[in-house]
Amino acid sequence: MLCQICFNLSDEPVCRICQDTRRDPSVICVVEEPSDVIPIERTHEYAGRYHVLGGALSPIDGVEPDDLKIAALYERVAAADPPVREVVLATNPTTTGEATALHLAQGLHERLPEVSVTRLASGLPMGSDLEYADEVTLGKALSGRRAL
Ligand SMILES: [Zn+2]
Question: Are the CB atoms for 56 and 70 separated by under 8 Å?
């Protein structure tokens, strides 16, 4: 099943990461697929929570904002207590991943201007999938993330 908070794969209604009180609830890392959480966890550079979109925007393939967990992200961030201070956009460095990151950055700035929106630093091979990034490269991309 999917975690009812972050939509990661979970064997309980709320996944272990969302349940873990040592994880910083004020930072949310947005990824395309549950398989993208694993390489980020492996870097040990990230101690916040996740939000899994379930894909990337791709009008050609008929994937529109309503097909992804985008409205759920806005609701989650707006309702968060303690407040979310940063949303890290960790969609893949592909055309659809970049388009999704821009869409989310715009949507978040409009709705929640007080939340800072960041994107992984470049350095990840363009056109690749986070899933296949090595942990050193991905760790550097995470620690060097920049505001959008
Ligand atoms: Zn979760």
Answer: no
Distance 55 CA to ligand 1 centre (A): 17
How far does the centroid of ligand 1 lie from the alpha carbon of residue 52, in Å?
9
Q: Give pLDDT, residue 134.
A: 86
63 Cα: distance to centroid of ligand 1 (angstroms): 23
pTM of this prediction exceeds 0.85: yes
Q: DSSP strand E in 35-140: where?
A: 48-52, 86-89, 116-119
Bridge-based pairing of strands 116-119 and 86-89 is: parallel
Residue 50 alpha carbon to ligand 1 centre in Å: 7
Coil, helix or strand for 122?
strand
The band of 130, judged by pLDDT with boundaries at 50, 70 and 90, is confident
2 Cα: distance to centroid of ligand 1 (angstroms): 8
